Structure formats: structure tokens, C-alpha cells
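User: Please work through this fold.
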Amino acid sequence: MKIALVGATGLVGSTMLRLLEERDFPITELLPIASERSLGKSIQFKGKEYPVMLAADAIAQKPQLALFSAGGEPSLALAPQFAAVGCYVIDNSSAWRMDATKKLVVPEVNGDALHKEDLIIANPNCSTIQMVMILQPLHKRYNIKRVVVSTYQSVTGTGQKAVDEMLQQRSGNVLTEVYPYPIDFNLIPQIDVFQENGYTKEEMKMVLETCKIMGDDTIKVTATCVRVPVMGGHSESVNIEFNNDFDLAELRQILSAAPGVVLKDNPSNKEYPMPLFATNKDEVFVGRIRRDESQANTLNCWIVADNLRKGAATNAIQIAEYLVQKGWIG
């Protein structure tokens, strides 16, 4: 199987490479794609070196699958070109997520929405992925009315330059090139640009993507997204109001049985999800589960996942594995 990786030199691209190897994905030839300034570089994969190439050269080789992690503009320009040669595209940018003709997929939640003709498939926003992994099994049982989420998002979500900037600040060099303020020893209540309604683009992604993935526009979602000086993953405080009452023991059992979810909820032993323990793991961790005593049929919980893995690379490769399982590629 010939696979193109667009954005091969970035943080998510390098994580995808690592996961393709870890998960023993059936790949025979890698076509690593980056911008012109990366030409001359090479990518190591399974003990071999693959030279970085331009997208046009990869398209000419008609790969079966293209994994995209290069931003919205390249995705809008290039994804249709790959699809035109019969290549499945799994795109990690926001370019196609809210396109009514494209599927937005978390395999454990709505993988069955995919059809063979869906050549361009959108990978959801990292913070949305980990939240819907918890919401979906609970929605099936108790029917969700409203979700209030506050996120605590890792600098790795911005990219390598943000990581370098935070480490520079930690060593005393107060650069502010990536974020408008220092991120080390600070929290920045802005992720992406502000919209006319006062919410940021990241916050609106969580609102709109949640309803699309779960296939239910009646779920009300409101979000506040905050960047924190952490590298291990994204954390979320989530308040969920159901239309029906719930039993906490049953609810915990439902989450324990949910695919890809790990229940880590033993506060008496100080056991709860943290980025420290989620780093380099593919599961979504949930804990601090308790009733909201201020309102009926309402739950509070704390959700953590590695945003580079399940929040991006792992989810994309799980989609690719689904395509292989269906016999559509490979």
C-alpha cells in the first residue's frame, strides 16, 4: 500500500509516522510531503529513508491513502487533487469538517457513517474528539440536553514553535512570537481567533462538531477554551445535563465498557486523569465523576487525552484502519 503523508515534518505528522509503525499499518511505500523549504530532507520510517517530496510528485504516483496534517489552505487546495486519482484523504485540518458533503469521524462514535465513496474524510478537532468519546455512550442511555465545557489545552496543540517558545520562556528568554502573551506561568483564555459572537473559533468548533459527529442538533453546547503551559495533552471540565436521570454506578459501568475510554475515578486514592499520565497513550481518560448538586439530571466529569495521538494522529489512523477493514484500500 502506497501512502502519502502531507505535513510529514510537523508535530502531528511525525506522530502519525510513529503510530503507523507502532500499529504495524500495512504500508509498502511512504510518500512524505512537505513544503519546498523541506526539500532535500528525508524521513526515517521502518529503518528506511524516504526523501521529502512535493505534493504534485506524490499525486502522480497515485497513492491509495493520503494523511493530511498541513493546515487548512493546503488541504483545500490538495485534497481534491488526491481524491481525483482515487486516493482516500484523511484530513486533520478544519478545512472540511463542517462541509455538509464530508463525513466528520471518530471511529468509536460514528465510524459506520462512512461509505466507500467518501474519498475526503475530516478528522475532528482534538478537544472535540476526546469529549464526544465520553458523551456518545452516555447520550445513548440518558439523552443529553446540554453540555458546558471548559478546556485546558496543551501548547503542543499549536505546534513545535509554541513548545519551543514555552521552553525558552521557562529558561528566562521571554519571547512572545507564537502567543500574544507569555504562556509559561500563565493561562491564555484564547485559542484561535475571536468570532463576532465573542467566542473563539476553537470554541465554536467544539459546539458545531459535537452535534455533527453525534448526529443530533438538539444537543446544546457552550465552550470556553484556554491554553495552558502543559505538553502532555488536553484536559476538559465537562458539565452534562441529561433529559433523563441517571444512576452513578450504571453510568460508570457504561463508561468502563466504552471502546477507547479508560475510567480513572478513585478520588479517595487521589486517582484521576492528568496529562502527566495520558502522554503517549491512545485512550481517553475520564474521572472526577459526580452529580451536579445545583441542578437535576446533571453530571460533572474531567476528561484528558493526548491531543497529538487520539486528538489527531491516532484518530486519523484508526479511520485508515477502518478503510482497510472494509476492504476499500489495501
About this structure: Residues 309-326 form the longest helix (18 residues). Residues 2-124+312-326 form a domain with the Rossmann fold fold (CATH 3.40.50.720).
